[in-house]
Amino acid sequence: MNDQHENSPQQEMGLDLTEVEARKAFLEFTETDVALLKSLHALLGEERNALFSELFYHHLQHFPQLQPLLADAEKVERLKRTQSVYFSQLTEGEYGSAYIENRLRIGIAHQRVGLPPKWYIGAYRKYLGDLMPIICNLLGGNMEKCCATFNALLKIIFFDMELALDTYFYAERLEAEQRVKDLAQYDALTGLPNRNLNYDRIDYAYTLAQRSDGVLATMLIDLDRFKLVNESLGPKQGDELLKQAAKRLRDSLRGSDTVGRVGDNEFVMILLNMTAATDAAMVAKKILEVVAAPFQIEEHQLHLTASIGIAIAPTDGKNAQDLLKNAAIALDQAKKDGRNQFYFYQAEMNQRTQRSMLLERGLHRALKNSEFELYYQPKVDLRSGKICGLEALLRWQHTEHEMVLPDDFIHLLEETGLIVPVGTLALRTACAQAKAWQNMGIEFCCVAVNLSAIQFHRQDLSGLVQQVLSETGLDAKYLELEITESAIMKDVDRAVQTLRELKSLGVKLSVDDFGTGHSSLNYLKLFATDVLKIDRSFICDIKTDSDDALIARTIIGLAHNMDMKVIAEGVETEAQLAFLLRNQCDEMQGYLYSRPLPVEACTALLKEGRLLSLAS
Q1: 342-344 and 479-484 as β-strands: parallel, antiparallel, unpaired?
Q2: DSSP readout, 394-440?
Q3: C-alpha torsion angle, residues 331, 336, 341, 345 (rounded to 10)
């Protein structure tokens, strides 16, 4: 037999004997009052209480707001009988624990059907108003006894009203506690389970899957480019989009599955009873279709895509933490590879992620410990064969590993925001080194420094460049800033303004990786740049790919017609050089002349003055 019992309302509300006696004492409710009420009860009889209930409910019919509660005739009759008993008990003279428990349960019932506290006040007022002349009549007009009896009735009614209000306060407290619980477990915007509850449900689902030998799939779903929608339309419309997306995801699931929200625009699905991983793939395809259908947000019709990462238990994890971690790794790869697709987690993804995490931690240390350094690759004039400039290229001399090349860490610098301080360091170091070479008496033309998209679109860029030039003493005409075509096209209007501000300082400007972006001739006229750099992807197969050759010739002709110079990067063979010479390219850089060099080796090369052979 179970000894655990549900607490009574009296216990739940903390109405112990001490509290009850204190309330009665404050109301001055005594045994004399009890005796008066018992006498009144004997005089009244049950029929009077029944009559009162009939009159009271007739009175309620006059209030439209109470009509929905009184529409059911059977329910009204039941309430009348309850009311008759209720008012009869007021004068029975038994006001102990059973009486209190009964009053609280009735109050809770009234609260649940929607009767507000004012209903109690109105009911007691009418009860007292109708009963007063009856009391006086039953007591033969004895005013002293009438007043004493009526006073006793007032005391027990106020005691009852306190109990009624207790039930409402108790209900409000329970509702508040439930709201707190919901906030702790459910997302306030979409109503879906939040991250904490999803962790619990994944662990529970894994236990169920083990018992049934089924497959458990955990899917992370990211709404692609949601941030752009949120920023362009506003947070209110963004929230509405999330609510609609959440509803679609919820409606697309089976009853045994769960969908929750775990991030700003990220959802999780827990798929139970999969027979194989291919079942999860079918669900993922369905989700991509569901998200791809147009969303109507006010007057805007929006088209979204989704990226999905899937982890399968127990292969990819045996608990929520591991499954969500691995699904996130797969999701990240799906986004990097173009979005609007789903990827299953693979172990090699985790190895790449672990390496990225190690590198990211190392980057902070590298900046602090001055582990970054610049290598310099010469640019060669194709008319004289002389060095006409140098491009500063960032390298990371890791303290525990060999040299780390830019392709392995530049994207991490951008993702972490470290590209700003590291980029500033590179700019300052390159300018200082250029000035140092000048002070050595080395014939020097220009040093080129690459700017990331993040650096380029900072509002204080021209001020920073001016400050660095002033600090290092380098004349602006010896500094060239390289900006990729894609960085410029990210925000054309702002880019044009920034380029003009930089140009006004006297520095040279070049468009890097030209031909790989989406700029048009109309924009190119506005860029006020001095140099176009042909991307190495067009140079590599220039002798065997007619399209690459045509593109290179077109860029050279375009630049010259717009009074700009052209430099080809990635030149490694004599055949490539011969092509560039025949088509009057102005400059080149690449392994054919020199690899990027550390400062000491570059200084020696500059002093040597070695010429590039231009014999074709």
Answers
A1: unpaired
A2: EEEE-SSSSEEPHHHHHHHHHHHTTHHHHHHHHHHHHHHHHHHHHHT
A3: -40
Nearest partner of 323 among 492, 455, 207, judged by Cα = 207
Task: Pinpoint the alpha helices (H) of 8-96.
Answer: 9-12, 17-26, 31-60, 73-90
Q: Is the pLDDT of residue 3 over 70?
A: no
DSSP 534-584: E-HHHHTTTTT-HHHHHHHHHHHHHHHHTT-EEEEE---SHHHHHHHHHTT
Q: What is the DSSP string of 302-325?
A: E---EEEEEEEETTT-SSHHHHHH
Which amino acid belongs to residue 237? Q
Q: How far is 187 from 193, CA to CA, in rounded Å?
A: 6
Q: Under a CB-based contact definition with an 8 Å cutoff, are residues 523 and 492 in contact?
A: yes
Q: How far apart are alpha carbons 497 and 512 in whole angstroms?
A: 18
Neighbours of 150 (CB within 10 A): 18
State the helix-helix crossing angle for 117-138 and 31-60, rounded to 10 degrees. 120
265-286 confidence digits (pLDDT tens): 999 999 887 777 788 888 989 9
* CA dist list (Å): 533 to 403, 509, 512: 27, 11, 5
Residue 2 has pLDDT above 50, yes or no: no
Yes or no: say if 533 and 482 are a contact pair by the CB < 8 Å rule.
Answer: yes
> Which stretch of DSSP H or E encloses residue 338?
none
Query: What is the SS3 assignment for 223?
Result: strand
SS (H, E, C) 437-477: HHHCCCCCCCEEEEECHHHHCCCCHHHHHHHHHHHHCCCHH
Over residues 540-554, mean pLDDT: 89
From residue 470, alpha-carbon distances to 140, 392, 438, 439, 499 in Å are 109, 19, 16, 16, 19
Read off the pLDDT band of 172 (50, 70, 90). confident
- The answer to whether the peptide bond before residue 314 is cis (omega within 30 degrees of 0) is yes
- Taking the CB of residue 610, how many other CB atoms lie within 10 A of it? 16
What single letter denotes the amino acid at residue 168?
Answer: Y
Give dist(CA 302, CA 192) in Å, integer.
23
Kindly report, residue by residue over 282-319, the tens digit of the pLDDT: 898 999 999 999 999 888 888 899 999 999 888 888 88
> Cα–chain-centroid distance for residue 228?
13
Q: Are strands 565-569 and 266-274 parallel, antiparallel or unpaired?
A: unpaired
Token duo for residue 589: 């850089």
Helices 320-336 and 347-368, axial angle in degrees (round to 10): 80
The structure tokens 């009348």 sit at 80
Using a pLDDT cut of 90, give the percent of the chain over it: 35
Closest C-alpha among 225, 219, 249 to residue 342: 219
